[in-house]
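Much of what follows relies on a compact textual record of a protein's fold. The record below shows the convention in full:
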Amino acid sequence: MSSSTEVKRAPFKGDHVGSFLRPERLKEARAQRAKGEITAQELKKIEDEEIFKLVEKQKNAGLKAVTDGDFRRSWWHFDFLEGLDGVEGYDAEQGLQFDGVETKARGIKVTGKVGFTDHYMIEHFRFLNQIAGDAVAKLTIPSPNMLLFRAKIDEGVYDNQEDLVKDLVSAYQGFIERIYEEGCRYLQLDDTSWATFFSEEGRASVEEKGQNPDEVAELCARVVNESIAKRPEDLTVTMHICRGNFQSTFMTSGSYEAVSQTIFDGLKVDGLFLEFDDERSGGFEPLRHVNRPDLSIVLGLITSKFGELEDSDHVKNRILEASDFVPVSQLCLSPQCGFASTEEGNKITEDEQWEKIRHVVSIADEVWQ
């Protein structure tokens, strides 16, 4: 494991969001397991082998932080949330709606008091940490807001939302304490809830539920801040704010402006991974609300949705534009999202995926040499 001083540099100048395309061998094994053709132990062996190869590829591409690529997950969020006490997955009536496509039908529901006693992803991280070598083992989990936004609450479990929030925060605090004990020093919270407040349509959807969008945004910030409030000083916590990523499509659009003060001046995270790969994300002006010299801004200027490589000079110029609002020393570079937020993956080849990662590292080396 790297020393705390090294880890504290996370997020790194050339970094990544976390998920990677599932290799065909892994897809076939998971399909076989679903049909009962192989045992859980046989699947785990293949997952272990493919994650080991993935870690080596990440290191060879120049990344200083490595993940397990979500190789043991179907979804970036549901798989983790179902591991909390009181939360169960279920077969929903329909999938989540993206731009012209729909996910598999899946949902989560709160059937009992939310809590943390143990979690199967602790073992997943333990394996990653053991094989990371001189790289930093990075764990990505959904923000607690994803339970508030995605879960159905069974009748009679919670009389009011504040009781749910209290238990949810406690559960995350418990998980964070435990994962730190396992050696985690780089934790990322993935969160699509913020995108609800970026557009008029999204804010209207909140109002239709009888809620005030600004008050809900403040709640989202409070839940995150309280969940990470007890973290040790040498645990770096970042957040990835996403507008949706499924088979190279998106769910929402809009600038960060509407909640920029809450995000950039209100969240107590150490770094923010932000989408800036196309015009749907707006300009860099909202970054003017970054008032903390210790907050890293990771610019997602390289798209994970399509294989064509961005022009290096254009990316460098955009980093320069962003430095009008945030000192370049606080800026980093990454893809705007993972390559496979769900096991289906984006419409990009594995070769193109690795070209993108090497592109990020190469440009970062040139800008921050």
Summary: The mean pLDDT is 88. The longest strand covers residues 107-115. The chain has one domain: 4-19+60-367. The radius of gyration is 19 Å.
